[in-house]
């Protein structure tokens, strides 16, 4: 029945393979447009080094050519990625376009590639073989999505800063997606060569990159079958055009452009979002999975876990933090207060690796100041942000699951093999995430996205995500912002409960009443310098603190009462 459509359906398969090479980088939030270069390298090298006749009498050359093409594409992506992955957005896109064009020009002018005439190769790719490759790729991405690695990709796509603070190695994750893209593009190049029987430099021009990107975006890159949907849709457009008798060459690009514009405007997640309702509701793990069973014990109460000396941060002539000496002990609740612009957020940014200090030294849980954020997170530092940094396209539960990154084991390879240990580890991570949602009162909202939450609930979700990392040191940057008095009192109670459990809490807050109720020790900053430190009530009575901060707060309240 399908015999007359073999070429069409195989072309859809090839389009899906190419789209998967874009799918994997879009999953990690990267706009890479060098896939045509990776595909051409894979195709040409495979064609030149793999024998044209069956190997060992029965093995098709394409079976050997595929790993060769994938390896060449991956190696090229690694080499190119070292310099270009320092770039973001449109700058990364331009750099990778330049790489693709450079490869095309070299191949077009090289003698060993036969120049513009290209190379001929025997046709070995069949309809069923092409779809086997698509099925393998779809399976790989299906198993990747809900795994620890898949969540890392999603976190990097949504917010690199927040991902790093949750323990995700952003550089490694971006490089992994880039290398995977190169490998899949190399596979596409080999499949194209052995299906059409000829490759030329024009085969892998910029139009190929555009088609692959449009296919990936049209199908959707948030679910594993998006590239197949996109390829089927776009490849069918010319056939429908022909069936309707519309032979003008300008119609196809016009229709493609209109469809892409419609998807971007009305279905930003691609055609695959039409199937989003099929996603099952989140389910709590059974009672056999205790979330804290396999977690490391916290340090003994009173143990020094952080010490910094002479810490300073300058932005040109502006001194945000000046000569701060600070020691943090396990189990304490340390409050940091001060006027706006006193350097509070800059201080905790340095303590969590988001900003390197200009001067000073010290260690946080054994990690030297100036290290990358994921190293602090892996050591036991977790944090929230002054301005909410939630992963908006993930559900509430998935946001908290990202927080388990540093306390859960990699599961992707074991998931591919359906090993029971992978399911056990995923369920433990799930149990830990549910426990934190219940702790902050958001368990009944696990399946929605953060955009549907109130401001106070968003702050609680961010705290739950930070707690899912089982931190030794929890840093909260203005956690009560936007909360009413009742919610702030509940948060203070939660913080005291965390301290009772052995978690060390450092938090910045302008709600002085909450600070005095929750803290065991208080530090006051003014113009980047520590002006007072000690027991909260004593510090609050310090004349310098009253003049620099508390007096101002009282004056503002008094003025507001008379307005």
UniProtKB/TrEMBL annotation:
Residues 306-552 form the ABC transporter domain. GO terms for cellular component: plasma membrane. GO terms for molecular function: ATP binding; ATP hydrolysis activity; branched-chain amino acid transmembrane transporter activity. Its main location: membrane. It is a multi-pass membrane protein. SUPFAM superfamilies: P-loop containing nucleoside triphosphate hydrolases. Keywords: ATP-binding, Cell membrane, Membrane, Nucleotide-binding, Transmembrane, Transmembrane helix, Transport. It is found in: Cell membrane. InterPro entries: AAA+_ATPase (IPR003593), ABC_AA/LPS_Transport (IPR051120), ABC_transp_permease (IPR001851), ABC_transporter-like_ATP-bd (IPR003439), ABC_transporter-like_CS (IPR017871), BCA_ABC_TP_C (IPR032823), LivM-like (IPR043428), P-loop_NTPase (IPR027417). It comes from the Bacteria. The chain crosses the membrane at residues 7-26, 62-84, 90-112, 124-142, 175-196, 208-230, 250-275. PANTHER family: CONSERVED COMPONENT OF ABC TRANSPORTER FOR NATURAL AMINO ACIDS, CONSERVED COMPONENT OF ABC TRANSPORTER FOR NATURAL AMINO ACIDS-RELATED. This is ATP-binding cassette domain-containing protein.
